[in-house]
Amino acid sequence: MSKEKKDVFARAEEFVALFSRGAEFTKQILHENERLRGRLSQVEDRQTHAAQDNVEWEKLREELLARIAGLENEKRDVLDRLQAVEEENRQFADRYLEIEEENNNLANLYVASYQLHSTLELSEVLKTIIEIVINLIGAEVFAVYVLDEKTNQLSPVASEGQLLSAFPRVPLGSGIVGGSVDRGETTCGEPLPSDDLERPMVCIPLRIGERPIGGIAIFKLLAQKDAFTPLDHELFTLLAGHAATSIFAAQLYGQSERKLNTIQGFIDLLTK
Amino acid sequence: MHRHRILIVEDSPTMRQLLVFALKRIKGAELVEAQDGMDGLRKVTSDHFDLALVDINMPVMDGLKLISLIRGEESLKGMPIVVITTEGAKEDRERALSLGADEYLTKPIQANRVLSLAKSMLKIE
């Protein structure tokens, strides 16, 4: 048999199969139509019967009322569930925002503490403190003080917004800065700029345990910053501890480097 | 996965680390840091970037100069630029925007604000 004939037969078979499926489907539809007609006829009969018979009518009415009541209950239940789900969604959205904020705060605190402990050079530590106070807190005029244990005076060692020489030395325990460092309590007033360089709006004492190391005094915030946030207070606390240990470690490192150089000088002198 | 190359031009290591922290949450983000305007210019002209975050006050070359040079380059005209700065005055904002910056954020920044702004600039859902 030629290939063309084979193809014709194959297509004819396909057509017959398709036609059979169509016929089967038509039969099913006709059967379903018959069934629905029967059901419709039953319902119509019942309604006609009910319309003529009061008892039957009452029964049908009660059935329908019960069904309406059931559907109403179901609707109420669904609405209650919808409300509960909406409330849950709202709570999730609130919680999500809280977690986002917490996440932001933790990122700021992590970065601040990471940077503070990333160096042992005092100048670098002071630079990092300045960066944190400008970029993370948003201060425009401020100074970092370090305690001179011999004179018991706080000396400004780094500043922003004003020359370092403009900031006065402060005896420990005296004024806002000296008092705050001495007591170990952060002073935080209204965020109003202060031109008086002895009266900062914020003073953060830098201490290691009971030992005062220095302080950070903020006199003016950036123009776009009008209030302190909870994160700012977290940063004050972080600076109070971590900036103090960083400065102290850098001071010790500087001293040990100097002593090491002196000893090395002696050794070189003796061995020459 | 589509890569989003972002250039961070900022002299403060603290701010750079914070921005990296915020932006690494973008899927496919590739973050490159530059420590001043000159470094930023070198990087932006030698490689492709989808977004640049630029500080204004920086040593060697400031952010405004960098923005004007970027906008002068034909191939970089379409790259979005977001300024992140301590300068909050209206005239600073207007100056940066007139030079070609697309957005202007003032410090202290909120990491999620930077993230959502970067996503919108990169047209990420």
What features would you describe in this structure?
The complex is a heterodimer of chains A (272) and B (125). Chain A is an alpha+beta fold. Chain A folds into 2 domains: 3-114; 120-260, Beta-Lactamase. Chain A is 66% helix and 15% strand. Chain A has helices at residues 3-52, 54-116, 122-137, 175-183, 230-271, and strands at residues 139-148, 153-160, 170-171, 187-188, 202-208, 211-221. Chain A is elongated and about 120 Å long. Chain A starts with a helix and ends with a helix. The model of chain A has no long low-confidence stretch (mean pLDDT 91). With 125 residues, chain B is an alpha/beta fold. Chain B contains 5 helices and 5 strands; from the N terminus they run E-H-E-H-E-H-E-H-E-H. A 5-stranded parallel β-sheet of chain B has the order 2-1-3-4-5, with helices on both faces. In chain B, helix 1 links the parallel strand 1 (4-9) and strand 2 (29-34). The radius of gyration of chain B is 13 Å and the shape is globular. The A-B interface holds A 100-101, 103-104, 107-108, 110-112, 114-115, 128, 131-132, 134-138, 140, 222-225 and B 12-15, 17-18, 21-22, 86, 88-89, 106-112.
